[in-house]
């Protein structure tokens, strides 16, 4: 795992599934919480169902969820009567269940589909509000605010509204503000536990409300002044600026998609460029954990432009022509031999006046003339992502123009 990320994808509805290909490209691996097979089929353009299952099979995408969801238990069946996205699809859900059963004896980090523990969100939120009754007004006010969708995720708002209108049996005698606050904190508890269960380095937030919501949730403290809403992980994926970096990375990849001239994205994901991208992203997250938030804005574009600027194309042409081989053969003869190779293919090497000993030099010359890719010691992944080939100077100039425009 080079850059594991986590997304509670169904919270975002269609926009989440429409960006699934970018999330897979940005992650290694991407962990999804209880994805909807119905939504996958309805929004299969970026990632067809067969390809999605291939991603899971080879651990590029991992699935986590409650047993009831992964095994079509009564809670999922009941939810399916109100939400089409919960309907069971044997082709998709049945295959994920097979992965889950087949991986039970593997170490957790190798499992393709993993069952998490049972939720305790309702019990926890009830106890917390009994101990901190002032939180009821805080969360009810946030829910009723005209800007609620800027501070509370859409899925959390919708669930709180359902509970407000149709309370659980245990809460029917509770006032509306209590029911709303309890539902919001219950979802917050479950969401953060799911994130920590995934062991992700960074969350994928697709809505502006997400980071503000988790900042607000972080107000909840236990008697030791520790975050009360979840058991803390050793490496906190909500600390630092990992979510902002992932968000910027998705924007960059989306823009590069617009100018892509190379292979389909799934070929990039299957190749070495994907691993390099994941390592590069992970290093940015690690390097910015303690920096001021103002330095994070636009950092992905800045870092990428700087990395590309530092890169150099090795064996410049003046060094090639200064070499003893080229001087012996004569520059004109050398260039004509290079042209002969380019036009007639490798079989012409036997006829070339400079002989077989100069074949590597011919190749280097062709690279410098733009007919073959030049060795570049900077990042390779942007070129593989956009052009599907190794770097060239023209591609480097093109990328810099695109990234410069992104900085405004």
Describe what this molecule looks like in 3D.
The chain has 408 residues and is mainly α. The protein has four domains: 5-120 and 187-244, no CATH class; 121-184, no CATH class; 245-313 and 376-406, no CATH class; 317-368. 54% of the residues lie in helices and 4% in strands. The protein is built from 22 helices and five strands. The chain has helices at 14-18, 20-26, 37-42, 49-57, 67-70, 74-80, 90-102, 121-131, 134-144, 154-165, 176-197, 209-217, 242-258, 265-269, 272-287, 299-310, 317-321, 324-329, 331-344, 359-368, 381-386, 393-406, and strands at residues 5-7, 30-33, 61-65, 113-115, 202-203. The radius of gyration is 27 Å and the shape is globular.
Strand order of the largest sheet: 4-3-2-1-5
Average pLDDT, all residues: 83
Q: DSSP strand (E) fraction?
A: under 5%
Total number of beta strands: 5
Unreliably modeled segments: 229-235, 345-357
Computed over alpha carbons, the radius of gyration is: 27 Å
Main sheet attributes: strand count, strand direction, barrel closure: 5 strands, parallel
Structure class: mainly alpha
Distance between the termini: 34 Å
Percentage of residues in helical conformation: 40-55%
Helices, by number, come to 22
Number of domains: 4
